[in-house]
Amino acid sequence: MASENYKPLLSGPEDRTSVDGLSDTDLRPLKPKSWSSRLVTLLSRLRPYIIAILSLLLAIHFYLDKRSFHSRCVRELHTPSPILNSGVLDKYSTVNLNGTLNFKEKWAGTPNDARDEQWQSIIKADVWIPVTDDEVKKMGKDPEKVVRVPPQHRDQYGDGAIGVMDFAHQMHCLDLVRKYTYFDYYMEKQDEEAFGNPPHVLRVHIDHCIDMMRQFIMCNADPGIVTHFWVEGRPTPYPDFSMQKQCKDPWAMVEWAEKKAIPGYKLIYPSPGEFIFPWDPSIL
């Protein structure tokens, strides 16, 4: 009698399936996956991480490219200056100009000490700033023929040239013309060096400032459009001079100038070896 522990032999095609339900195909050793299959599997698992990393790199690229583009624009649109490398001009802001006639503005109007102090708060940027010879050359000038850093300051500021920021001079000119429109007040006050000059010298100074402002405005000709609106009782459209502008931060420029300033403003003298031009009214 056959023991119940015995299992039948596999003899014919009809017996190709074992008692465990496994076919001979199932019992064959598995072939190892090819390297390409393994690579596809790996990439499939890493796909979310790859996408995240590429997105981050792309965002960084666009951010740096935008800053690089802005820096190139700043350099293209401005005279060479050490402030271009400071980051001060990297940010512009939208400013709503007040173009109305009946406005209360601390910069304009009847003169008083508070208004004069307001103007001086920005004209104080008219200080000596060190400039490299390379920057002087890029300005189209000869480094050998410009005023140099005084010897007593060369250890700290180098032996390059010095100059003042044009923005401060432009504000000085506009302020002088403002004061000239209140001639009697400022002649009596005598807080402006220019008003202590003979009348013909003051007139030349005023005309110089007017033409400097004219050249600056024409050089930076603003393409903005002045729209108009209708006002009851007026037969013609009224210009709306209150406009939005993209502006630098003038106070950041003043702060930068004060930090870079060489002590002893204006109190300097020619150093040995400095070039001195012969007297020629045509260059003054």
Automatic annotation (TrEMBL):
<feature type="region of interest" description="Disordered">
    <location>
        <begin position="1"/>
        <end position="25"/>
    </location>
</feature>
<dbReference type="Pfam" id="PF11807">
    <property type="entry name" value="UstYa"/>
</dbReference>
<dbReference type="GO" id="GO:0043386">
    <property type="term" value="P:mycotoxin biosynthetic process"/>
</dbReference>
<dbReference type="InterPro" id="IPR021765">
    <property type="entry name" value="UstYa-like"/>
</dbReference>
<comment type="similarity">
    <text>Belongs to the ustYa family.</text>
</comment>
<protein>
    <recommendedName>
        <fullName>Tat pathway signal sequence</fullName>
    </recommendedName>
</protein>
<comment type="pathway">
    <text>Mycotoxin biosynthesis.</text>
</comment>
